[in-house]
């Protein structure tokens, strides 16, 4: 079946990497949710490890039909956009994610009950997720993802492991939920800070339309740890009330 370029379809053809992902997921006896299974090659590996149940969400109607034919009642196939689904939950979430939609999917996971997630993403995206202050990769994605999740870059995967090969390498990441809820105020505060991450904090806030008499650290946003950003946001919230 012809791949749909508009959906960013690049199928992993490394049997050892597929096995690695399935083993890392440790699905035995668990409810598993797979995002974008395509032709079901990772789905098959997961089934071999005896999950309690396996739910897959596939946007491409052709592959959704293929999955129903291939696995029958062993797999519950949801045909549609993962970002539009409601009331999803799982013990484990897995998926080789399309690069163009990694960020929205990652942050949508914050609203889904789960214990761990094993995901394949673009390598540079993974590096940004785990980046530390004062590095070039550190930014809004780093802070937000690290507040929401305990994130680890587990394994790099070469672009030649996919059909067709993408232009860049990938990485497998492991996410575990933190006991943390992010509201709109904090989300907006982080966004404003990192829109001007090389400016001093007072100037960055000014450009974002926030004026305050608070004594602010004489640092740039890219130098602040997630703990410092969280503390600063709470002080600002209190001063504006």
Structure report:
The chain is an alpha/beta fold. It contains nine helices and nine strands. α3 (61-71) links the parallel β3 and β4. The model is unreliable at 1-7 (pLDDT under 50).
List keywords for this structure.
alpha/beta, 241 residues, 2 domains, 9 strands, Rossmann fold, Helicase, Ruva Protein, domain 3, disordered N terminus, seven-stranded mixed beta sheet, two-stranded antiparallel ribbon
Briefly characterize the structure.
The protein has 241 residues and is an alpha/beta fold.
As residue ranges, the low-confidence spans are 1-7
Classify the fold: give the CATH topology of the largest domain.
Rossmann fold
The number of strands is 9
Q: How big is the Rg?
A: 20 Å
Task: Look at the structure and give the mean pLDDT.
Answer: 92
Strand arrangement within the widest β-sheet reads 4-3-2-5-6-9-7
Q: Describe the global form.
A: elongated
Broad structural category: alpha/beta
Tally of alpha and pi helices: 9
Largest sheet: 7 strands, mixed
Q: What is the CATH architecture annotation of the largest domain? A: 3-Layer(aba) Sandwich
CATH superfamily of the largest domain: Vaccinia Virus protein VP39
Number of domains: 2
> Helix amount, in percent?
25-40%
Top-tier CATH class of the largest domain: Alpha Beta
Strand content: 15-25%
Distance between the termini: 57 Å
